[in-house]
Design brief:
globular; 2 domains; single chain; Immunoglobulin-like; Rubrerythrin, domain 2; binds fe (ii) ion
Length: about 120
């Protein structure tokens, strides 16, 4: 059983997928179940990952998250309840994105620390 917008990761090959249409099946990759990525909303380390919405912009972390080759924000996703847009980032870019609408909520994905959601 899946739910729309859930993010799953294969712990063997690293494939990551998002559910667009929920159904009863189980997502499998490399011969085993894919792992549901929890939407973290509480920081446990000094790395800051929680998306902060400022107007049409979404910033990652009160202190900008690192954007290095081995540790960076892969994407920032925002929704206003009707539309969802995801902007993919690369190392050395700023950990922020500007959208064409004012997001009501946002999610980010760190390649080391997983999925995070705005409060
Ligand atoms: Fe991180």
């Amino acid at each position: 059983m899946t739910n729309q917008e859930e993010v799953y990761k294969c712990e063997i090959c690293g494939n990551i997928v998002e559910v667009l249409h929920e159904a009863g099946g189980q997502l499998v990759c490399c011969g085993q179940s894919m792992k549901l990525q929890k939407e973290n909303t509480v920081e446990a380390s000094k790395e800051k990952h929680i998306p902060i919405i400022k107007g049409k912009k979404v910033l990652v972390g009160e202190i900008a998250h690192p954007m290095e080759e081995g540790h960076y924000i892969e994407w920032i996703e925002a929704t206003d309840g009707k539309q969802t847009i995801r902007i993919f980032l690369k190392p050395k870019q700023k950990p922020e994105a500007e959208f064409c609408f004012k997001p009501k909520s946002a999610r980010t994905y760190c390649n080391l620390h997983g999925l995070w959601k705005s409060r």
